[in-house]
Amino acid sequence: MTNAPQSPVDWGDVPPPTDPAPARRGVSVSGWVVLRVLVCAFGLLSLAYWGYLAWPFPFPGVLFMVGAPLFAAVVWFLFRSPRSPIDTDVVGKVVVETALVIAAGGAWLSLGHPVVGLVFVLVAAFSGVVAFRRETA
């Protein structure tokens, strides 16, 4: 096509655009990652502890002690993880993470430790809000 519009700018003299690194304030990235890992691990251990104490030990106890955290981990992997095989929008990720956090907090409530459940839910909510803000920014 010989009559295509031509740019009036000579791009040979223009330097390539640079992307300055954003200034970091507060806790470093690794600090937030450590907090997220601790929250997730505590949530899974809470579900396992609930399965151990809330059900009789031989048959249903072992099933719930292993099954509840395994189910939560699989749901988190399928719908919430960064390498999720199922493409989920932001609302779906929030719903899944909220359900898992409430399940772990409810486990502590049903065991008779509402303060532990409330503190866990508050820390997990704070960590979740920070994680979503960093993901969508």
UniProtKB/TrEMBL annotation:
Pfam families given in the database record: DUF2568 (PF10823)
Domain of life the protein comes from: Bacteria
Keywords carried by this UniProt record: Membrane, Transmembrane, Transmembrane helix
Transmembrane segments: 33-53, 59-78, 90-109, 115-132
InterPro entries per the UniProt record, alphabetical: DUF2568 (IPR021214)
Protein name: YrdB family protein
